[in-house]
Amino acid sequence: MALAHTRRLNKELAEIHAGTPVGINLVNADTFEKWLFTIEVMGTSEYEAKKFLLMFRFDNTYPISAPAVQFVVDDTHKAPVHPHVYSNGHICASILGREGWSPVLTVIAVCITIQSMLASCKKKEPPLDNDRYVPRAPENPKKVSISLMVSPLLA
Amino acid sequence: MLHNYVDTSLDDNLICCICRTLFNEPVTTRTCFHTFCRECILQALSVSNHCPIDRSPLSVELLGQADPIVRHLVEELTVRCPYLDAGCEYTGERHLLESHLKLQCPYIQVPCPCSDGNCKRTVARKDAVEGEMFVHQETGPESDNARSMICESCEEEFPSVPAMEDHLVNSCPEKIVPCRQVDNGCTWRGRRASFQAHTGQCPYESIKGFFAIHSTQMAKLSKDNERLQRRTNELEGTVRILRQELEWAKVALGPWYRPVYPERPPMSANHTQWTDDEGSNTGSAPGRVGPVLLRTVDLTSGTSRPEPGVENGATETLDLFDPFSFITQRQNRASSIHVANNVPTATSVTDTDSNTSSSANANSHAAESARNGHNLNGDATYDSVPSGPGSSNGSGSIHHATGTTLPPVASNPQSTSTALFSDHFPSEDRVVFGDGSPSPRPQGWQPVSSPPNSTPLNPSPGIHSPNQPPVSSHIHSHLASSHPFPCNRPQFMPSINKHVVAPLNLSTTIEGSLIGLRESLVTLSAALESQGRRLELALTTEGLRVSEEVGSLKATVQGLRMQVYPT
């Protein structure tokens, strides 16, 4: 079913247009390959009043396979400083990995997870192996090899 | 499957969480009772083995069909026909859509029903009118006419396309046609007008009678060939099955199975020395082919000289699974047997005709003994038999399993001691197992106890002397009565609990055979012992149980007595 992912993404898009949770806003969903969202952490937190740009990339086995999710790092946007977010925007989250992903999860669900991950951060510091990881990391966060990975601590 | 549902408000409970559409062939997990579309969950399980909803362990086996209620709920939803755009306005329950498309929908494409069998076009069912002159809806009318109504070869015009086509195929004189005998090889092609002329000259045409005969013959031959091939396949199948069964039988028999091999080629090559000495071709055992469990052998078939007292075609009625029968036989006949030539004259151990193996010799010895056996009237003289070193009880001559052949010995028994001995080492033929020839037998069949130095030589295939003729039937009676060993039948084997007693390997030295025998005895005694222990144990427990019962009964009786006599 090569079109399965488009059907499902269509459905999700319809739901998104109907309304997204607070702090999550759709920026761009013109293609079925790449979607962009802005994430804001509500309430008082280390990231108050900061907006981050989140990019989703889908392949044709979605939702069986997880999307590639990362923060966009460019001139206008930076990745949040968080123990599970590398400075190149890659996110260390169990639900984004092969073992943690479930086809029941949706794009919105991932956004909410990341939002809460940021909200629950105690200290604004980068990951311990940030400097080791970032220069060697591949472009697509899903293609990270085992040797570079730190064990994901998030649920 | 993307259906077009009439009612756009979908019941959330009926939506698959993976594809976000209404369930299609819903299946439910048996462990956590979550429902998905069959395709969706199968795809998800191919990647991970837990439930997508609650991550509990899940596998394909744990999926079952969803509750019929759920299925009905989904199947009875109203959908529109997928050919809505083409004009079909059908709406109906989802499970009826398939048959609508197959049988009714006027807008679905069906294969073209025109008379041309090769037409691969499709038309909408509403346009597919069954009729003789179904004409395709051609795209451009003008080009059709211009194209099809004029014969391309002779430029003649026709009123309709089919008429033109008919003319072209059957009657146009300008059309290039092949010779009538094109199938038989004629390569002529030319205008139909010159067809007649060519036919008159065509060489293939003139021998068309031959072609006909030839082809009928070929057909017959192919039919026969097919039949024979089928038969061969059948037979091959049978052979395979038989082989398989043979294997199973071999396995079941375990070490008791020793195949017998086909008769040696003419003895002359191998036993020249013997023939020289005796002037006869002796030692050739009667031929027998194949592994033999039950032997009916013509006693004299192999020998060149008929032996006195030898039964012809005596049937072996020995109990097959009676490895020790020979022993009893021997013991019984000890007195009457004059084993003439167990002992080679020690002197001339002519060396290695490496062909003759010790086993061969043993066999020939066996042959001798067999003949001896038959001669119960105590005829002590036997023609010299090439006595093998096999069970050489020879006076002092040592037989190694090195295949030394010994010259045939004079007919008179050499010594009583050897004769006695030889009784205990029966000729191979008594041993139901086979000639003990080593090479064909897989290693695993060697008796467990065969000592290392006794590996028989590998005789050349032609040498294996099949076992000797069967004993006469009256021997059999001895067997039945005087069996010292109760557990020598394969039926008993299971009861011995894997105490396998291997058959005696006589293709070795005396020492080897003795050792083998001893090992067998040891195994047997161990088995017996363990059996005894088990029985003892059983007996003890039974006794204990009984005494307990008695005790309780006594107590009961006591109680009753107290009631009856309250004092």
Number of strands of chain A: 4
CATH topology of chain A: Ubiquitin Conjugating Enzyme
Query: So how many helices of chain A?
Result: 3
Q: Counting H and I runs of at least 4 residues, what is the number of helices of chain B?
A: 14
Q: What's the Cα radius of gyration of chain A? A: 15 Å
The structure class of chain A reads alpha+beta
Structural class of chain B comes to: mainly alpha
Low-pLDDT residue spans of chain B: 138-146, 266-328, 333-419, 426-496
Identify the overall geometry of chain B: flat
Organism (chain A): Thelephora ganbajun
Protein name (chain A): UBC-like protein
Characterization of the model:
By secondary structure, chain A is α+β, with helices and mostly antiparallel strands. Chain A has 3 helices and 4 strands. Chain A has a single domain, classed as Ubiquitin Conjugating Enzyme. The radius of gyration of chain A is 15 Å and the shape is globular. Chain B is mainly alpha-helical. Helices cover 37% and strands 5% of the residues of chain B. Chain B contains 14 helices and 10 strands. In chain B, the strands form 4 sheets. Chain B has a 3-stranded antiparallel β-sheet with strand order 1-5-6, with no helix packed on it. In chain B, helix 10 crosses helix 13. The radius of gyration of chain B is 45 Å and the shape is flat.
Task: Summarize the entry for a quick read.
Helices cover 23% and strands 15% of the residues of chain A.
Characteristics:
heterodimer, A: 155 residues, alpha+beta, Ubiquitin Conjugating Enzyme, globular, B: 567 residues, mainly alpha, three-stranded antiparallel beta sheet, 5% strand, flat
Secondary-structure blueprint:
The complex is a heterodimer of chains A (155) and B (567).
Chain A (H helix, E strand, L loop, with lengths): L3 H15 L5 E5 L5 E7 L10 E7 L10 E4 L35 H13 L10 H7 L19
Antiparallel strand pairs in A: 1-2, 2-3, 3-4
Chain B lengths: L3 E2 L20 E4 L5 E3 H10 L15 E3 L2 H8 L2 E3 L10 E3 L3 H8 L4 E3 L10 E3 L16 H8 L12 H10 L5 E3 L10 E3 L3 H7 L1 H4 L1 H46 L18 H7 L46 H9 L24 H17 L41 H9 L48 H9 L28 H55 L3
Antiparallel strand pairs in B: 1-5, 2-3, 2-4, 5-6, 7-8, 9-10
